[in-house]
């Protein structure tokens, strides 16, 4: 199986990921998440594990940060591969009064890279909202 070069394609996927979160656009995020993906908040006071379908419902209820005039503030810390069909990205972002660290596990499946697991932690920023 020949997968596209992860260091070329995954940053493009992450750009869509960041934009989808900024707009709280579950349809856009469906293009970067695997249908069987898991969403895990590792923040102790907000611990939860959701399927991607459950996460979509959360997103659909969220007030988009873009609609509140928030500017996008994110960065890719690292991208690593574990073979031709496995990758890991560590990203950070600030939105909705929180600083997030996301660990994203990606797989190459059915001709595309997709996020299979999103495990994250956040802390309330001093700005808050």
Automatic annotation (TrEMBL):
Matching Pfam families: Lumazine_bd_2
| SUPFAM superfamilies cross-referenced by the UniProt entry | NTF2-like
Kindly give the Gene3D superfamilies that the UniProt entry links to this protein.
Answer: 3.10.450.50
Superkingdom of origin organism: Bacteria
**InterPro entries according to UniProt:** FrzH/put_lumazine-bd (IPR039437), NTF2-like_dom_sf (IPR032710)
State what protein this is by name: Lumazine-binding
Give the species this sequence originates from.
Answer: Marinobacter salarius
């Amino acid at each position: 199986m020949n997968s596209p070069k992860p260091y070329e394609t995954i940053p493009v996927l992450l750009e869509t990921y960041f934009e989808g979160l900024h707009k709280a656009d579950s349809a856009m995020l469906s293009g970067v998440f695997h249908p069987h993906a898991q969403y895990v908040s590792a923040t102790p006071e907000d611990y939860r594990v959701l399927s991607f379908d459950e996460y979509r419902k959360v997103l659909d209820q969220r007030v988009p940060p873009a609609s509140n005039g928030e500017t996008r503030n994110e960065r890719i810390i690292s991208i690593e591969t574990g073979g031709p069909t496995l990758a890991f990205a560590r990203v950070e972002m600030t939105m909705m009064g929180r600083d997030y660290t996301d660990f994203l596990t990606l797989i190459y499946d059915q001709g595309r890279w997709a996020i299979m697991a999103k495990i994250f932690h956040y802390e309330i920023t001093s700005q808050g909202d």
